[in-house]
Amino acid sequence: MSEFWAYLQLGFAHITDPGGYDHVLFVIALCAIYNLNQWKQVLILVTAFTIGHSLTLALATLQLIQYSTALIELLIPVTILITSISNFFFKVPKSRFNERPNQPKGRYVLALAFGLIHGMGFSNYLRSLLGQQSGIVKPLFAFNLGLEFGQIFIVFGVLTIAFVLIELLKVRRHDWNLIVSGIVAGMALSLIINNGYLAQS
């Protein structure tokens, strides 16, 4: 049980680590168009992302798939940039009683597909922790569960900030989306440039 708890904490710490903020940026971009009243929709969206990264995290950690680490490190900020740009086309519902995003199904598919890429990024860190350890199923599950808890923590943090600014301070929801998505897109573009430069050197 102590091993399970240790890997769960490591998964949570890994995704919430400010030093490895690329995954955090993706989760922020993913939920930037939502508000606190839509938390159920956001959890479904994050679950789609989790299903994707759980699959490739398991396959890559078990060394059942091979990939270029440099390519994955480049693709992760690309997924962040695409998600942020897609937010620019979100139309705020005219009625407060119709707050469902305009194309939710497409967004779920996007989260699932991008989760596959992020899972391979997570696996590098997990493999370094496991080393030559033979029994990896339990650590893999615990680490993935920790990642999920970390994602939920980030989501509710972003939604709470959005609630304070939009509902209490009366910031326009459209403006909130553009500011957050613009900042995240800029940071993602910087990561793409840096990772592209490192891949060439």
UniProtKB/TrEMBL annotation:
Protein name according to UniProt: HupE/UreJ family protein
Lineage start: Bacteria, Pseudomonadati, Bacteroidota, Cytophagia, Cytophagales
TM helices/strands, residue ranges: 20-36, 43-65, 71-90, 110-129, 149-169, 176-198
The keyword Transmembrane belongs to this UniProt entry's keyword annotation: yes
Keywords (A to Z) from UniProt: Membrane, Transmembrane, Transmembrane helix
Superkingdom to which the source organism belongs: Bacteria
